[in-house]
């Protein structure tokens, strides 16, 4: 795995979310899940989203990815409005979503293949596999991988496209605790080396503050920005840092979950 001591040049896009509202049609009527959300994310910044389950965090990620168009408001990357998917914005989901009939290498190269770039850019597949420590598992199938290895393969599939914005929707949520801790460190190392802009949805408050430079707390549905925390602790971070514990206590209070702290 990559281990960088210093941050490399920023390659990420600036993101602007301006007064975005969105909802879904149900038999009983329109269900609003986002209401007047405004955020700006600097190029190369790592931002985490916290909020109650079902409040609309993942919906916001889908809008940033261009998988849906907001009911109102505007989302733009480097000034260009987002209205459809683009290889510069890649999503890593909670489930690895690897094709079981394709080897790890074939899964990772899929994006380049669809863009008809595989012949000229095949070296990027090997580079991505090395970044996530899977070069020795390139020719195995997904069912032969552990959960952590499968999620590494998903990261490699995302990284091979050199994304400007990496969108992470609970990517570590189904991993065991030890694998999750290891993957958190690996994810930070990849972000520091590649310089992409990172958006993370997580329900793990400690994870949010360990990884991100800024944590945005959302209200219950329909989601509104409730509070933002700026975390200027340097990397690499220590999980036992008292400042992280204080961030966690404050965010849990925002979410009404601080009774036991």
Q: How would you portray this structure in words?
A:
It is a single chain. The chain has 261 residues and is of the alpha/beta class. It has a domain at 1-73 and 197-261: P-loop containing nucleotide triphosphate hydrolases (Rossmann fold), CATH 3.40.50.300. It is built from nine helices and ten strands. The strands form two sheets. It has a six-stranded mixed β-sheet with strand order 6-7-8-3-9-10, with helices on both faces. α8 (205-211) packs across α9 (242-254).
Main sheet summary: 6 strands, mixed
Write down the CATH class of one domain: Alpha Beta
**Mean pLDDT across every amino acid position:** 89
Proportion of residues in extended strands: 15-25%
CATH topology of one domain: Rossmann fold
Q: How many runs of DSSP E, i.e. beta strands?
A: 10
The CATH homologous superfamily of one domain corresponds to P-loop containing nucleotide triphosphate hydrolases
| Radius of gyration, CA atoms, in whole angstroms | 18 Å
Side by side, the strands of the main sheet go: 6-7-8-3-9-10
CATH architecture of one domain: 3-Layer(aba) Sandwich
Unreliable runs, pLDDT <50, ≥5 residues?
Answer: 1-5
Order of helices and strands: EEEHEEEHHHHHEHEHEEH
């Amino acid at each position: 795995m990559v281990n960088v001591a210093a941050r490399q040049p920023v390659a990420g896009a600036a993101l602007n979310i301006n007064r975005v509202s969105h909802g879904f049609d149900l038999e009983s009527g329109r269900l609003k899940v986002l209401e007047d959300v405004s955020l700006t994310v600097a190029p190369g910044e790592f931002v985490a989203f916290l909020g109650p389950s079902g409040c609309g965090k993942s919906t916001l990620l889908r809008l940033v990815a261009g998988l849906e168009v907001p009911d109102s408001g505007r989302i733009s990357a480097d000034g260009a409005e987002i209205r459809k998917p683009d290889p510069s914005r890649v999503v890593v989901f909670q489930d690895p979503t690897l094709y079981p009939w394709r080897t790890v290498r074939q899964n990772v190269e899929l994006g380049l293949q669809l863009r008809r770039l595989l012949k000229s850019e095949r070296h990027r597949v090997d580079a991505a596999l090395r970044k996530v420590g899977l070069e020795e598992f390139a020719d195995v199938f997904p069912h032969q991988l552990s959960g952590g290895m499968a999620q590494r393969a998903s990261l490699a599939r995302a990284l091979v496209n050199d994304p400007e914005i990496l969108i992470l929707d609970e990517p570590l949520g189904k991993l065991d605790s030890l694998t999750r801790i290891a993957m958190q460190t690996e994810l930070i190392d990849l972000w520091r080396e590649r310089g992409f802009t990172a958006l993370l949805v997580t329900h793990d408050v400690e994870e949010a503050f360990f990884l991100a430079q800024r944590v945005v707390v959302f209200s219950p549905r329909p989601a509104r920005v409730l509070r933002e925390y700026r975390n200027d602790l340097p990397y690499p971070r220590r999980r036992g840092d008292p400042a992280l514990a204080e961030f966690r206590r404050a965010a849990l209070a925002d979410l009404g979950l601080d009774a036991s702290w």
